[in-house]
Amino acid sequence: MTESGTARRIRIGISACLLGQRVRYDGGHKWDGSLVEALGRHFSWVPVCPEVEYGLPVPREPIRLVGDPAAPRLVSVHTGIDHTEGMRSWAAGRLAELAGESLCGFIFKSGSPSSGMRAVKVYVSGSTPVERGVGIFAAAFMARFPLLPVEEERSLQEPALRENFITRAFVYRRWQALMAGRPGFEDLEGFHRDHQQLVMSHPDGRLAILERLAANEEQLPFDQAAAAYLRALLAGIKGTVLDSPTEANRH
Ligand code: SF4
């Protein structure tokens, strides 16, 4: 997929070990050549290793999620040191920096207690984990940037999901350009016209709700309508099921 008119390469955050950086607990990396080379044609990377940037050494004692899967703790496997609050505190500062990086998405390392965005092992009791956790940094990232396209490298092995992520990142980049120009509803309608075909090419594209939002039929303040529009647009392209018909208005 190419994009004339996007002069600057799209900036995507990525778990640093996926780029081949030797930041893993065992001194290794998780270089994913096919992914990095295929997506590198479209994107420039902003690497983040939460564990090393937070201050843990390489190599280091492994850490894992323990306790309640809905609110797990980040704990060293052997010494039992609890890094949860330290990691959250570091993440707050790092996320503030990333807010200025004009990111259009993030690719997380699957399975990591820091970077995994779904189905991370949580040790509830004993030695048998349940795969229901979210890494501490990934959770903080998604809470801070709820509209940014995010995915894990494992999912991006699937060509259709990879193409879908690229599409969402390009849409987000065009959205950034729109927002940089202090837009109004007229501009939102223009943006919608430019993306109508894309919306219609996705079975769950939510054309009707997007048209209502762009035409200001909901009589919402512009910022609220714009956030609802972007949320519905990206969810429609991804094929995400919204919890309720009014959820597009949540922001
Ligand atoms: S998964 Fe995340 S925390 Fe672990 S080495 Fe990779 S970037 Fe660092």
Task: Describe the 3D structure.
This protein has 251 residues and is α/β, with parallel strands linked by helices. It folds into two domains: 10-153, no CATH class; 181-249, no CATH class. 40% of the residues lie in helices and 15% in strands. Strands 2-1-5-8 form a four-stranded parallel beta sheet. Strand 3 and strand 4 (73-76) form a beta hairpin. The chain is elongated. Mean pLDDT is 92; it is low at 1-7 and 242-251. Bound molecules: iron/sulfur cluster.
Ligand list: iron/sulfur cluster
Could you say which structural class the secondary elements and strand pairing correspond to? alpha/beta
Radius of gyration: 19 Å
The tally of helices reads 8
- Beta fraction: 5-15%
Strand order of the largest sheet: 2-1-5-8
Largest sheet features = 4 strands, parallel
Low-confidence stretches: 1-7, 242-251
- Summed up, the domain count is 2
Number of strands: 8
From the structure above, extract its key features:
four-stranded mixed β-sheet; 8 strands; alpha/beta; binds iron/sulfur cluster; single chain; 251 residues; disordered C terminus
Please specify the SSE layout and strand pairing.
Elements: E1 10-15, H1 33-40, E2 43-48, H2 50-54, E3 63-66, E4 73-76, H3 84-98, E5 103-108, E6 120-123, E7 130-133, H4 136-144, E8 150-152, H5 159-180, H6 185-200, H7 207-214, H8 222-238
Parallel strand pairs: 1-2, 1-5, 3-6, 5-8
Antiparallel strand pairs: 3-4, 6-7
The chain binds iron/sulfur cluster.
